Structures are given as structure tokens and as C-alpha cells.
Amino acid sequence: MMKIDDTTALTLPRYKWLANIIGTTISQGLLADNQALPSERELAERYEVSRDTVRKAVRYMEERGIIYSGHGRGTFVAPAIVRGTTRFIDSFSQDASNRGSVPGQRVLNVEPVAASMAIAGLLNVRPGDPLIRVHRIRLMDNVPVGLHDAYFVLPPGAKLTLSQIERAGSLYKLLTEKFGFTPAEAVENLSAGAAEQEDARLLGIQKADPLLICERVTLSDRREPIEYCLMKYLSSYRYKTRIAKRSGD
Amino acid sequence: MMKIDDTTALTLPRYKWLANIIGTTISQGLLADNQALPSERELAERYEVSRDTVRKAVRYMEERGIIYSGHGRGTFVAPAIVRGTTRFIDSFSQDASNRGSVPGQRVLNVEPVAASMAIAGLLNVRPGDPLIRVHRIRLMDNVPVGLHDAYFVLPPGAKLTLSQIERAGSLYKLLTEKFGFTPAEAVENLSAGAAEQEDARLLGIQKADPLLICERVTLSDRREPIEYCLMKYLSSYRYKTRIAKRSGD
DNA sequence: TAGTGGTCTAGACCACTCG
DNA sequence: GAGTGGTCTAGACCACTAG
């Protein structure tokens, strides 16, 4: 046991290392949809890990919609329609890439604001407490597709300028590096709505045109709410997601 | 070891049994949001299971958004805002219950139809192949909130009548029992749209009013597509979901 | 430094599927 | 009946967190 692994990541856990190998094989198209993988016992032998480690890798990939398994039948490559539909917190940039488009943004405004009652309640602060608001137009291939109006709880004295955000590709990455912003989980609430005058102007549509409205509260690794974001998307925008299992298991 | 467990489920795996115990404690409000649970080692001792079994229970509940854990810190009760936001395939009835409303339906039509090109592609059948269409108005507390237009791939000769569906509470349950319909996973695509004349009439709104549009493909345990469903919801309807982690892990 | 969760192992037996 | 994934154990060591 414990042969040094030739290729990648000496600091990566073995199960993720295995998952990467298998995942790469699949994404390269070397395995057909619904094709069976080698059995867990065989993979364990082939890669010189315990069967439990193989199972961890399998679970890891199952959660991501890459493979699936059936009791007594085997483990299989998930069909293309479900692959890549797992949602993550940095979904906008991900979505764009998955579609082969270039994500972008135009920052309208960055300002300190006092928390409203509605937002204070969601972010566990008092009404009037200081927040930072970032108002942006989201672009795909340089075309506006939506509006993001985000409110952040940041450490006192935190300063954020328009040019900083524009320089950084990802707002989340910037906040993570500059402050201890570590999003771990989010709750979203989707609905349909009609464009207000202002929305219509910014997005280049008519007033009362339908919009996909998504409200999100983002939580830190300690489950403190750290962001509220109101997003409005054109009707051409598609929000893809995957649902696993039934509630009764 | 192996003390017979006093209460529930002698056929249930031990980790689900443990998860149920802990989950019940939480849902009864006996533990505060973000309160720490006993350590894994302590739970293992207390419930006379191995630590690995405790960890399985913890993972099981983490996936469902009931608890979360931090390396070196402990395991904690997820705050109320995230609990119960995990989406499952039978989401409509679940959603309604979670809100304290009574889910309902009015079946408009049940009929065999020939697959269109668009739907055939999604369901892996040939255009013209037989499908069964179920067109329904969805109700919450007897008030219309949306339209479901579902197309099923069922075994040849499968017959479905309007009265059967109306008698059965859940369409999925009926299909599962009568035919081998076993949904395991689904892919959804959400967007905003404007109500057509017919939508408006059925839902009691104006033409061009905004609607939340959700397309869904449901897959069996073998990942064969077995249902396509086009759903349209009033703007008052809320689609709740939870997103775990970031894409880079 | 003590305590926590995270990773890993080697082996056992059960439950299910399919030829 | 042979082969698959699912559950469970007992023990080891590592990585991280916090007082």
C-alpha cells in the first residue's frame, strides 16, 4: 500500500483524487452514457485503495450528478442531460461557461446603506445597521441578461470601491480574499414578476415584461447570513437545476 | 452490541434510524439553531453504533439541510431558514404542506397523444410514438396556482382514466403502483414567461401576465427519461431551493 | 494541547439483480 | 449462484479549531 501516486495532487484526499481520474475519463467522452463502470472491488484493486475509499469517490460523484448506482446492478455514467446540472453558489459564471458564453458585468453602483427592516430580518442585523450594496447588470457575451442587487454584511470599516469590483473577475472571490467572506450554503426563492420602469430601462425591454425573480440568502460556513441578493432575469434566461431522489427516500 | 432498539423500524438501517432520532429531536424544537450536537464519538457510544455509522447518519442529514458540520469545530443544528428547503421530486405536495396549505388538483384532460419532435427528443422515443398526456390545474387551498402539462412514457397498453387520477391523491404514486414508474432524479429548467390567452383563462389572470415557467424531465432509477412536464405558476408562487457548497468545493 | 471532524484501512455480512 | 452495491465494525492516524 501507500505507493506514491505518480500524477496529481499529493495533498488531495485519495477519494477526490480517484473521483478526478474517473470524472476526467467521463468528461473526455471515453465512456458512453449509462455505461457501467468497473465494480467497486475492481476499482479498489486497480487503484490500490480500500473499497471504502472507492465508495467515497462514488458518493462524491453521485452528489455531483456525474454517475449513479443501483443496488445489485452496478455503477453507471449519468446521461448527458443530467451531467453538469448540479447548482453551486457561484452559479452565474458557471452557467455561462457551461453554455459556452462569456459572463460579464456592469457595476452600476457600490455604496454603504442602512439595512431596511426586511433585509435586516434576513441577515440577522438590526434595521439601520450598515450594509454594503452592490448593484450590477449581468451580461452574457456582452448582452444584458439580468440585474443583481446584493447587500453584504461585512466587517466594520470594510471598504469596497467600484473599480476594485470591476478589476476583479468574481465579486465573491474578491470578498473572500479581502474579508473573511466564506459562503457555504444558500437558500433561493424563485418566482415570476413584471419589469418595473427602471428594470425595463436597464435591460432594454418594455415595462411589465415578464422577469424571472430570484431572491437569495447566502450563509457562511458558520451559517451566519452574509448576503441578500435580489436578481431579475430576462425571460430568455434559463435557470437549470437537478433534483435527486424523492422525499420518502 | 446489537441491543434491540426499543422503538421504531427494525428493518431500517442503523444510520437512518439514528438520523430519525436526531432529526425528530430537532424538528420538535428541543435544540436551538446552530446549537452543537454531541461529538461523533459520544453519539457512537451513546447509541451503541460505530463512529462510521454515526458519520453516515450525519452525512444523511447534512444532505437534507438539517445539520452541518465544521472540521475541528463540531456538528450543529442548521438554522431554520435552510431547514426544509431541500427539493425533492414530489415537490408540489411537499411545498404545500410545508406552507401549511392543502395541495389539490383539477384534472382537465387525460389522453393518449403522439410524441412531438421536441418531446420525443427529450424522452428518447421517436416522434409519433405513443405518450399519455395529463393536463391539470394545481390548487393550493382550493385556489388555482399553476398548470401542469405532463407527458408520460408508459408500458404499451397502459390505460389511465380521469377518474383514476382524481381518486388517487398523488399521480406519481398511482403510476408507481400500477406501472413500473420509479422516478429517481429530475432535471428542471426555470424561466419567466407571459400568460397566453388560454393560461389566463384557466388561472383567472390577464393575458401577458408574468408566469414562472418550469420544464422538467424525470428519469427512472435506470436513468431512462419517463416524463416531461411543463409547469406554469402564478407570480405569487414561490419555488424554494437550497444550494450547497461552491463548485470548487 | 485536548477535542473535533476528515480520511483510510481490512474485513465481514446483508440485500439485491440477473442469467 | 455469482456478482454487485449497501451496511457495519474497530481501530488508526491526520487536519483543524479553540482555549
UniProtKB/TrEMBL annotation, chains A, B:
It comes from Collimonas rhizosphaerae. PROSITE patterns: HTH_GNTR. It comes from the Bacteria. This is GntR family transcriptional regulator. Pfam families: GntR, UTRA. Residues 12-80 form the HTH gntR-type domain. Keywords: DNA-binding, Transcription, Transcription regulation. SUPFAM superfamilies: Chorismate lyase-like, Winged helix' DNA-binding domain. The keyword DNA-binding applies.
